[in-house]
Design brief:
13 helices, about 300 residues, globular, two-stranded antiparallel ribbon, mainly alpha, single chain, two-stranded parallel ribbon
Length: about 300
Amino acid sequence: MIHPSEDSPASDTLLPQSELAVPITGLRRTYPRYVTMLLFGLVTCSAMIGVPLFGFFYGYTWLDWTMFGLLYVVTGLGITVGYHRLISHRSFTCTDWVKVCFLIAGGWALQNSALKWGADHIRHHAACDQDADPYNAKLGFWHSHCGWLWSDQRHADPKYAARLRQDPIVVWQHQHYVPIVLSGLAFPFVVGWLYGGWMAGMSCFMLAGVGRMFAVLNSTFCINSVCHLWGSQPHSQADSSRDSWLVSLLTFGEGYHNYHHTHQTDYRNGPRWYNFDPSKWLIYTLSLLGLASSLRTASAANPGSSGARIPS
């Protein structure tokens, strides 16, 4: 079913203060932050240098490009539908096995665990364009695009992750994040190896593994950078968020960012039928199949107009 969201205070993203004081057991920080940063650095350098060099000397096959496209879609939707609209904003609910699939797909995108990603994103909405905003666009394109990954975490606060820590599937994915990432790199290699041996495996690994991770990373980063610097603001000018149809094409509908910041729990980023938002189409399809429910929409009579912000 589709339910209109009720306007609520910004604290809806967080747990009550009484619950924040309760120790949360069963969660350990399995991997230090530098492990994720090392993986990110290796993938970035390999994608910018290794992928084109490998293509120049050996070329890429139809299988490599097919796997690139397939995994771009799967991992991109893992971020947009799983990490973003399901975990961070609770814009719908789904069965546990569907949630597991989304979080594995999101983990294959090398964008931190859903717990860390969601906590940062909730903080972004709570303090957009302020010092506590991890992607603060006022610090420039580079910082909001990816430079924030290297910035200090002085404004990080456990309250932004408290709700997420109560989800056992989110906790499980957080604790097994690095093996999930590595499996996302191993999968295209295995497919290529089964098709044509070691060289085919390496070719598929380079393009559909490393190259695809780099492409999905930067398309997602464009939401934090491009969609806060360039584009239109048809719904609200309360912050720097902007709509960009081009970014929507790259990110399965996430480019309608001004609407999203105005109505944060709406399962649609593009509210109009003609808006390119494959993420909302997937969520709606899952609801028709009985795999998703409680789809939340903006409570404003006209979803295309500005209205009260609906917190995540």
